[in-house]
Amino acid sequence: MTISTDALVPVGGSDLRVFPLSLGGNVFGWTTDRDTAFDVLDAFRAGGGNLVDTADSYSAWVPGNSGGESERIIGEWIASRGVRDDTVIATKVSQHPEFRGLAATNVRSAAEASLSRLGTSYIDVYYAHYDDEATPLAETVEAFSRLVDDGLVRTIGLSNYTAERIDEWVEIADRGGFHRPTALQPQYNLVERGFETALQSRAATHDLGVFPYYALAAGFLTGKYRPGADRGDSPRAGQAAGYLDARGIRILGALDQIAAAHGVSVTSVALAWLRARPTVVAPIASARTIDQLPDLLVSASLELADDEMRALDAASESTPEQAQAAARRRCRRPGRFSMRCSAFTRLADIRLGENSETTAKRASEQGSGLGRQCHH
Question: CA–CA distance from 60 to each of 126, 293, 297, 329 (Å)?
């Protein structure tokens, strides 16, 4: 099947055009085995999808894995189907056990390792997965730009960067004549809206196409997790259930009403809302099985009315105290970065103690990066 260009949208200031839904590859090699991953990828492509998101560290947290499992599965699928030319691959550097940080030599070595696992000569979107404050930013900016110059990377992305560090990256790039980033990957969904302050503004200012991760809030926005419902044995069930407060229940009620009006799932509505937000190019959502994919694909063409968008906005409004609670939920999730999470929750406590809604929103926004390190 040839991907239709009619449904594709541009990515920031790059020449890339992508389907308005990105398939998350974080589950490949974790909760999804190779054969099932191939089925999911086939169905995603058949539905018009062309963008697959992964990272060199996926899924090093699984016992027996070493990192790069997701990239390897995606690479084997591309090779077996012969679809490299119309598949857009996004991957990331800084968290692989053998390639931590963003020093120039590490960025280059990690990119070459990813290219080998993916079985390709170029990466379409190469993200700095997390900021590395131990490495001079100018060194990192130049290292990424050199990869573009050498034809190993088509465009550069940033993930989990603060607004100030994004400004600094762009300033260094402009001053040095290096390639600018064109993509931004923050945590953003209907229950985690810290992105909408400074980060959204920077995305617009710097022409960054936004690809929100955790678009379904660890499954909460599928509607599966409700008061009294069986949480099952999913690795993210406990995380999703953490959103079941008064605000979360209010959000689910609004989603239910709109989903019923359109004859679609809650999942489709939550993703359609996110896709329609300013600066967003494509939400990232993963499917552990092929049965989970249709609802994701429906979201790419579902158009919500203005009053439906407003209803979801109103249902998801939060107080500063709720923003702090959301940050704490993120940092209670299991993972390998609890020290940084603890530091963030202390910061949130201090800022909330100032009794300022502005600082609460800023703390929530910064927590979207640190929070991800607690569980992703």
Answer: 19, 25, 28, 23
Calculate Rg over the CA atoms of the chain.
Answer: 19
**Residue 176, token pair as written in the block:** 């040095």
Given this model, what pLDDT does residue 237 score?
74
Residue 254 above 90 pLDDT? yes
- Tell me how far the alpha carbon of residue 291 is from its chain's centroid: 21
3-state secondary structure (DSSP) of residue 132: coil
| 221 vs 33: CA distance, rounded Å | 24
Say which amino acid occupies 121. Answer: S
Contact 162, 184 (CB under 8 A): no
Q: How is residue 319 written in tokens?
A: 């107080």
What is the sign, positive or negative, of the torsion defined by CA atoms of 67, 342, 101, 179? positive
User: Are the beta carbons of 50 and 87 closer than 8 angstroms?
Assistant: yes
Angle between the 104-118 and 137-149 helix axes, to the nearest 10 degrees?
A: 40
Helix, coil or strand: residue 118: helix
User: Kindly report the CA angle at 337 between 332 and 338, in degrees rounded to 5?
Assistant: 45
Residue 240's pLDDT is what?
82
How would you class 5 by CB atoms within 10 Å of its CB: exposed for 0-12, middle for 13-18, buried for 19 or more? exposed
Residue 365 reports pLDDT greater than 60: no
**202-205-209-211 Cα dihedral, nearest 10 degrees:** 20
Element (H, E) at 197: none
